[in-house]
Amino acid sequence: MTLSRNLKIAAAAALGLATSAVAYAQSMKPEDAITARRAYHRVIALNFGPLGAMAKGDIPFSVETFKTNSARMASVSSMPVLSYYQDGTDTDAGDVKTRAMPEIWLDWDSFKQKMETMQQEVAKLAEVAQTGDQGAMKAQVGATGKSCKSCHDDFRNK
Ligand code: ASC
Predict the structure, then answer these.
(1) What is the pTM of this model?
(2) 20 to 30 A from 65, CA-CA: which of 55, 76, 89, 152?
(3) Domains in the chain, please, with CATH?
(4) How confident is the model at residue 1 (pLDDT cuts 50, 70, 90)?
């Protein structure tokens, strides 16, 4: 009897903890969510920069660098980033600025689709790097850049 009551209390406490952990995870401080999604894009851009320069012939082509950078991009881009675009993060928060446009939340399905397209193009970029086919790698840089631009055009302030 006593044991069963204690078990119930323990279960209720565990459930309470789990519930508050979920609530916390779903809603970060706005400045934290914006910082995290900016870091996501920053790492992707820092790795994509040299690949764009290689595709244009501005710097010598390095299959090794292409493999490393595209692997970083694929790894980072595949993380669940959409929940960092939580409600209330459409404007600067404290010292943290955002270029996210309100259209993101007005046209969420399109935003989600464009983000997923980018993630798919980046995954392909890392795949094609493994073939060492420089022509295919350059072509996929183009397709990937297009997917970045398409979302920026609609959803990122200039
Ligand atoms: C980059 C970068 C972007 C995209 C975009 C592609 O390297 O920082 O935002 O490529 O310019 O069109």
Answers:
(1) 0.84
(2) 152
(3) 3-155 (1.20.120.10)
(4) very low
